[in-house]
Chorismate synthase
Amino acid sequence: MSAVWGRKVRYTIFGESHGVGIGIVIDGLPAGVMLDQTLIQREMARRAPGQSDLTTPRTETDAVSIISGLYQGRTDGSPLCAMIKNSDTRSADYAAEPRVFRPGHADYTGFIKYGGHNDPRGGGHFSGRLTAPLVFAGAIAKQLLTAAGISIGAHIAQIGDVKDTAFDPVAISETTLAELGKSGFPTLDLEAAASMRQAIHSAREQDDSVGGVIEAAVIGLPAGMGDPFFDSVESVLAHLLFSIPAVKGVEFGAGFALAGMRGHQANDSFVKHADKIQTATNNNGGILGGITSGMPLLLRAAFKPTPSIARQQNTLNANGDTEVLVIKGRHDPCIVPRAVPVVEAVIGLAIWDML
Ligand SMILES: Cc1cc2nc3c(=O)[nH]c(=O)nc-3n(C[C@H](O)[C@H](O)[C@H](O)COP(=O)(O)O)c2cc1C
Ligand SMILES: C=C(O[C@@H]1CC(C(=O)O)=C[C@@H](OP(=O)(O)O)[C@H]1O)C(=O)O
């Protein structure tokens, strides 16, 4: 299993959704960092399940126990291991024998790859629950990046066909990112937020789910970070963003819209602002040749609708027999609101690794 990532810092995630717990081992953090426990708890709470009627009713506190790597509140240079307990499991929802493959989930592919030995309860290791340790690691990365003058923030850019205002690609402020971080349902346009909530309620009422898009920004990055080709800033970020369950699309700057532009529209002209080299527009999302330009880094991640829906679906079981599936479990009608801190977290890991 590809549960290890990172070059300067190595991150190893472990656990299953209905096992004893989940967690992460982080090897390579600088020693002597006093961890910001308030920031860690705030980030964990932003992602935790059971927050409102817009999320899965499964309730987990997602309290983090740090069992190694910390001495007197500071990182001690040894691997930092953090554990999060699973408590509100309801494994009977996943007890069907032979196993029934949920359309859109990893039940079938996990079964094939691991010969039926994978833990099917709550999606096992494939569960979105494994993003909790990522958010923990992301909080540490954010703390380190803040000290370097770098801020990360995100908003819900789209739910179904309801869209929020996009970030100003040139002039995103630290204040805007900080305000978004305080919101349980971060959008730039409050009216859009109300329509998005309505779209999620409506999908749930129809025994269905809905997808969406998260737009994220990183400001304060120096020009010159990253490498061409295989380790381009886009490649490293996309690797981590596609590691988030349910992400099916990633774009940088104007992204796919660039394909429909002419060169004179797409090119970002260089201009001087108070002796600093900038660009007048930012269609390239702060990255040129795989290297940061010093402009805000902008990306968007598309999430598919939650696969586990209450509506009747046709499928197959592990014996290959037809089944009519009606999922009775507890699921997010939309993944996007809880995934905002996850997207920010993996961006934090990627940037800290590249800086
Ligand atoms: C924060 C988060 C919460 C999720 N909640 C659910 C859920 O409640 N029900 C579900 O079926 N899938 C949920 N997912 C998505 C599945 O885990 C994911 O679709 C599945 O593992 C298959 O992976 P893929 O969609 O990347 O192919 C969630 C994902 C994330 C990131
Ligand atoms: C537990 C979390 O989300 C879970 C992610 C998930 C999935 O299939 O990804 C399915 C659901 O699991 P269960 O059926 O056990 O309730 C969600 O509740 C979490 O995010 O912490």
The first helix runs from residue 37 to 47. The longest strand covers residues 151-159. The mean pLDDT is 97. The chain has one domain: 91-354.
